[in-house]
Specification:
The structure holds two protein chains of two kinds. Helix content of chain A is 35%, strand content 25%. By secondary structure, chain A is α/β, with parallel strands linked by helices. Chain A has one domain: Vaccinia Virus protein VP39 (Rossmann fold, 3-Layer(aba) Sandwich), CATH 3.40.50. In chain A, strands 3-2-1-4-5-7-6 form a seven-stranded mixed sheet, sandwiched between helices. Chain B contains four helices and four strands, in the order αβαααβββ. The two termini of chain B are 23 Å apart. The chains are: A alpha/beta, B alpha+beta. At the A-B interface, helix 4 and strand 3 of A face helix 1, helix 2 and strand 4 of B. Bound molecules: S-adenosylmethionine (SAM). S-adenosylmethionine binds next to helix 3 of chain A.
Chain lengths: 196, 124
């Protein structure tokens, strides 16, 4: 699928939060950012097509839907919120995507997956502006679940902190893109084999 | 919920021993049509707990002729890989329950979405 096509698909059909819950930091990744991010992850790093991918805090599923369109073997979207999951389900059905699995769970809870099951984690987590530290909890979980890479959107102001934490957790961080739109940044975390 | 997902899920009820595998009770099963990717299935075979997959598929009546024991040298057996593909990705439990084997806590599956919340959180 071409980038333009992916972006227009995401633009046309994806519904987003009806009544965003501020406490859960519910805002959707724009189709433009989602399409560019996913397209690059697929074409430059080969981390989507034929992979088992996870989307932590999937919300209405913009990233999950795009990942499914790029032929992930299975994309598992996880969110705590019923309303968001129902919209995600609608989006998935509208696109007739068969390779998406949704799960309702709290990312802060301890293990509900045994180990590094996934190839890739792609996420736009809460920034931790409402629930301090939630961004780092998401990141830590993501690194425990991915056997190759984690792609995550964060605020520029948290970059140094994330870099330090990532190193502590044995991951290597690369800044992939600076996005002015939402003042978000995309990072790639590469796993070191030694981490368990 | 796909059986591949079930194969990876553990319950995490505090104080209880690790809840794996979760018992799967299916009230409604639907069959999906997912693109077959032999490379992916081969990779998954080294990750999934085959015994759990076999027992679970059997329990919900969708064994699709997969063998009880994973045979060596199945990499080139396309017929087998297609069967495993079907069981892992195409069988979806739409309505049902997951039950933690240690704490007996029940997790509902509705519309194919398992609810793994422990019940303390409210989502709205
Ligand atoms: C910034 S939004 C991103 C939504 C979606 N990933 C996207 O890119 O459009 C963050 C999402 O995380 C979810 N969330 C917040 N806290 C959570 C938690 N503890 N466990 C699971 N999901 C959570 C929210 O419901 C929300 O959908």
């Amino acid at each position: 699928m071409k980038l333009k096509q992916l972006e227009s698909h995401l633009q046309m059909v994806v519904d987003t939060f009806d009544k965003p819950k501020i406490s859960l930091e519910q805002y959707a990744t724009t189709p433009h950012i989602a399409a560019h991010m996913l397209y690059n992850i697929d074409t430059m790093y080969n981390d989507i097509q034929g992979k088992l991918v996870c989307d932590l805090g999937c919300g209405c599923g913009v990233l999950s839907v795009g990942t499914a369109m790029l032929d992930a073997s299975l994309i598992v979207g996880i969110d705590i919120d019923d309303d968001a999951l129902m919209i995600a389900r609608r989006n998935i059905e509208e696109f007739e995507l068969e390779n998406v699995q949704l799960i309702k769970a709290n990312i802060s809870d301890t293990e509900f997956f045994g180990g590094k099951i996934f190839d890739t984690v792609i996420m736009n987590p809460p920034f931790g502006t409402k629930d301090k530290g939630i961004d780092m909890i998401f990141l830590h979980r993501a690194l425990k679940l991915a056997s190759t890479s984690v792609y995550s959107l964060h605020k520029s102001s948290t970059r140094q902190h994330i870099k330090k934490k990532a190193a502590e957790w044995g991951a290597e961080m690369t800044v992939l893109a600076e996005l002015r739109f939402n003042l978000e940044n995309t990072y790639k975390f590469h796993k070191h084999k030694s981490v368990s | 919920m796909r059986l591949l997902t079930h194969n990876m899920l553990t319950s995490h009820v505090k104080g209880a021993e690790s809840g794996y595998p979760l018992i799967l009770e299916a009230a409604e099963v639907i069959l999906r049509n997912v693109d077959f990717n032999p490379e992916f299935i081969k990779r998954m075979l080294s990750k999934v707990n085959w015994d759990v997959l076999y027992q679970t598929a059997k329990a919900i009546g969708h064994l699709n002729d997969i063998p009880e024991q994973l045979q060596p040298n199945v990499e080139n057996d396309e017929e087998f890989l297609r069967k495993a593909h079907h069981v892992l990705l195409e069988v979806e439990v739409k309505e049902g329950h997951l039950i933690c084997p240690t704490s007996k806590k029940k997790f509902q599956i509705s519309n194919g979405i398992p609810n793994m919340l422990l019940g303390e959180e409210s989502s709205s």
